[in-house]
Amino acid sequence: MTTAIRRSPVLVAMCIAALFMVIPFLIVAVNAVKSPTEYSRNGPLSLPEGLYLDGLKDFWERVDYGQKLINSLLISGAVAVLAAVLSILNAYAIGIGRIKGRTWVLAFFVLANMLPQEALVYPIYYLSKEVGLYDTRLSVIIVFTVIQAAFGTYLLSSVLGQFPREIIEAARIDGADKWQVLWRIVVPVSRPTIGVLLVFFFIWTWNEFLLPLVMLISNDNQTVSVALGVLQGQRLMDATMTNAAALLGVLPAIVFFLVFQRTLTRGIAVGAVK
Amino acid sequence: MTVTVEQDGGRRVTGRHHPATRSPRRPRDSYALFLLPGVLAFLAIVVVPFLMNTGVSFTDWRGVGSPEWTGLANYRDLLDDSEFWASFRHSLFMVVAMAAVPTVVGLVLAAALFDYIGRHYGSRVVAVLRACLYLPQVLPIAVAGIVWSWILAPDNGSLNELLKAIGLGSWQQDWLGDPDLALYSVMGVMVWVQIGFPLVVFMAGLQRVDPQLHEAAELDGAGWWRRFWHITLPQIRPETYVVLVWCTIAALKVFGAVYVLTKGGPGGATNVPSYFSFTTFFEKTQVGYGAAISTVLTVIILVLALIGLKFQTRAEDAEEGGRT
């Protein structure tokens, strides 16, 4: 160990830093499979003696976790697709159509993207009650489609601004109208960027907390984040249940991370400096 | 994040453009139709609620009945409200935890990964380490809050147990329940959450830096630190602005972590503007007052965003000018 430190101190330091980031996940996983008696006897730091899955099962049934997963998947999936479509339409007009006043339109979308949700949440809550959409998954889908599309419009517009115009001109000469150019040429060519957007929108929406917390009050409509956050806020969970909750909350995130890792890390760079 | 690319469409694009291929006015304008759904949706979901919120901030309203116009009374009350000032003071702590510290640490980690680990141990090792450091970023903040509130729990929490196990039992604390400590504990969690973002952005930025610059400096006898300071840092200045602005704005918006970890407590020790406006809206139902809090927050964020965009645009222009 000491020779390893002496030979490659930077690598050892980086590994320790990485371990520090991952350790909370490991502790949660280890403790989620302990029985309550084992937990109170040995504390959180011991390795589990066996695989005790009743805690996870109890928690799953008590909060109807399957339903929460379906809600989150439905909301995030719908938002990802709808927000991408909306972004494409906006960006087509701004980036390729070069409509008049596009700088202002774009600046408007950028600022809308920065707006804190606190400044929208009460009117949205109030208006959704007025139109009878309060406590429906549809209301959350609509709101996040628009909010996410602000970022998508911004990113796609700058990508489409550099779209080779010769291709579009050629298609127009061949008689394609704007709608056909968009779906047959622009969208297929921009598929990598659109892929990044879909992944971002999905994960961002999955992780959203404030608006779903306000909008989704009934158990049948809540997302994973809201259900877990509310449970934690009520301070009613014992240690085993907390761990079950944490593990079941962490697992989908890790699955998405492993599936989308490449798109995510590359996409952030594109999104940040474009 | 920048609007440079689109600026006036002219400056950068005209060079590449043949005047002959430019489409005539008439068909170009019908592109505006594609913007119609987006504009309508934004009016309904962003613009109208935002204007309503701003309007309500000048009234006394409990969420039912009609709002009563009170002018600037809410804002005058805010100035005398110690809770309001405390929440913004805590925001500054969050900026340190979510913008300042992650930017500096992220820069060092990114440089170490890119320059040193990448060169000596290969890109595989870099990818694995980067993935570990980035992982907390994809976790829902509510879940991160559950994980940490359990680790930091006073009885049987992992941190306290660990301290006991290594003989530092006297260091045990009620990390989230002690008014003097809670804010720092939340800050620690936020550093953990945030660090992956600057790291990934900086690593992408470092790939842009021309390796020949480093080689030339190395031949001239410049050490790692001097090369980092004089070559790497100036080269990735645009990324640094982006990261600082985004992280600062994220820090001002912190809500979920506070809701799950401390609920603003103990005794308001970790209250932040967004949580303060949330409780004012939905628990105290002083809608007008809550709207005033969120309006102040919005103004601060938009001003910061504009300053940030300006700085970043300038940095990128300077960089581009330097290259050509």
From TrEMBL, chain A:
InterPro entries: MetI-like (IPR000515), MetI-like_sf (IPR035906). The keyword Nucleotidyltransferase does not apply. SUPFAM superfamilies: MetI-like. It is found in: Cell membrane. It is a multi-pass membrane protein. The keyword Flavoprotein does not apply. The chain crosses the membrane at residues 12-33, 69-92, 104-126, 138-160, 181-206, 241-260. CDD domains: TM_PBP2. One of its GO terms (cellular component) is plasma membrane. One of its GO terms (biological process) is transmembrane transport. Residues 69-260 form the ABC transmembrane type-1 domain. Keywords: Cell membrane, Membrane, Transmembrane, Transmembrane helix, Transport. It comes from the Bacteria. Pfam families: BPD_transp_1 (PF00528). Belongs to the binding-protein-dependent transport system permease family. This is ABC transporter permease. It comes from Streptomyces dysideae.
UniProtKB/TrEMBL annotation, chain B:
The chain crosses the membrane at residues 31-52, 92-114, 126-151, 181-204, 241-261, 287-309. Residues 1-26 are annotated as: Disordered. It is a multi-pass membrane protein. It comes from the Bacteria. It is found in: Cell membrane. Keywords: Cell membrane, Membrane, Transmembrane, Transmembrane helix, Transport. The keyword Oxidoreductase does not apply. Residues 13-25 have a biased composition (Basic residues). GO terms for cellular component: plasma membrane. InterPro entries: ABC_transporter_permease, MetI-like, MetI-like_sf. One of its GO terms (biological process) is transmembrane transport. Residues 88-308 form the ABC transmembrane type-1 domain. The keyword Coiled coil does not apply. Belongs to the binding-protein-dependent transport system permease family. This is ABC transporter permease.
